[in-house]
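Shall we go through a protein fold together, starting from nothing but its sequence? Please make up or recall a protein chain and show it to me in full. Go ahead whenever you are ready, and we will take it from there.
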Amino acid sequence: MQINKTYKFWFCTGSQDLYGDECLRKVAEHSAKIVEALNASNKIDYEIVLKPTLISQASIRQTFNDANNDPECAGVITWCHTFSPAKMWILGLKEFQKPLCHLHTQFNEEIPYDTIDMDFMNENQSAHGDREYGHIVSRMGIEREIIVGHWANETVQARIGTWMTTAIGVIESSHIRVCRFGDNMNNVAVTEGDKVEAQIKFGWEIDHYCVNDVVEYVDAVSEADVNALVEEYYSKYKIIDDGRDAAEFRKHVAVQAQQEIGIEKFLVENNYQAVVTHFGMLGGLKQLPGLAIQRLMEKGYGFGAEGDWKVAAMVRLMKLMTANKKDAKGSSLMEDYTYNLVPGKEGILQAHMLEVCPSCAEGDISMRVCPLSMGNREDPARLVFTSKTGPAIATSLVDLGNRFRLIINAVDCKKVEKPMPKLPVGTAYWTPKPDFATGCEAWILAGGAHHTAFSYDLTVDQMVSWANYMGIESIVIDENTNIRDFKKELKLNSVYYK
């Protein structure tokens, strides 16, 4: 599975030619030093490319259109070193189609009190050059990230890195294609949605196939390939046979290996990056894909259960946004299953029938074969584990009929108090912020689904920024949430986004 890690970001400095060639030489020199420092920062995962100083409408327009046409460019960082008359920027900004970051900085960190003169003042004008530029971007209603502070400051560098992650999500969104094997679960509301509007808003293509179309690929997998993958499973995972005969256990595991190879081949040949299955529409499949889907998610594919294409696309998006993140802790489909309501220990046990991504696992990952009451097929093999602890986010993209809403809940993942030896699935356990009762009430008020796209590696602000770039409503549930204000926000949003 290929996840593009070659993206770059352009650094564009605004100026003008009123102050002469010597000033412009210094502007270019200062810009180069800033870019060199940002590229050396451990807070930034993607390369920044310095472009020539922009001093005219023609150069600005050409640069922004070049950025549009460069598939490796994921966004542009702008900074006005000197005063840069904003009318020069209008056509370039109007035609620009990628994420924009306004870095409001200046080359020097401190005012040079002993030597400052008017030449210095004219050359170092970010304090008002950036405001002139910022005015026109606001007047044009263009979404952008504004980052304020000295370029050498680690907090500023970290914010640039955070914005880059969001920008990757914006760019990659239009590359997501979801393959649905089967349709939505009958009578379930929240997994439905307007696929045409989703393609307009997010660029997603959501297609449907008969499940037997992929069965042909599964059946065509060679026995040798299946056996090789089963050996990989046995070497990588702890085997819990639950008293089953060893040969019978391996036979069930081999079915999942055959499904993993066949489904992935179908996705690759047909250029899909996310997949949806439904336990009620299995056609000629011998088992509901469990271990197979878990492994595909770990490779970077998105997944949604029971026809939930919105979650499949969002999981894929999260995988893309975090692909370059060092020490990533994982992203996955999750589902709210059951509560712990003991006072002081409240939380939500997250799982699914089979398909939680092992990228979230902490400690041993076991392989088990257990009955599944749904689907009327053989007992499927699956990976069993408990997930990592720490802060994370759970998101739900819902279709409200006249618009999409992205609900983002900050959660605190915890360890369960006791083992759950009879529960043969991957699990996570969390308490929503600001607390269990408020978090659950706010989620329900906002219309959140029971399926979520979950990540340890993305932040609330990154997902809010992504929603802003997409032009959709976002609702945040975090430590600052109170129900009275939350209800007001929902009412105001219903007017704004109507």
Summary: The mean pLDDT is 95. The first helix runs from residue 21 to 40. The two ends are 39 Å apart (CA to CA).
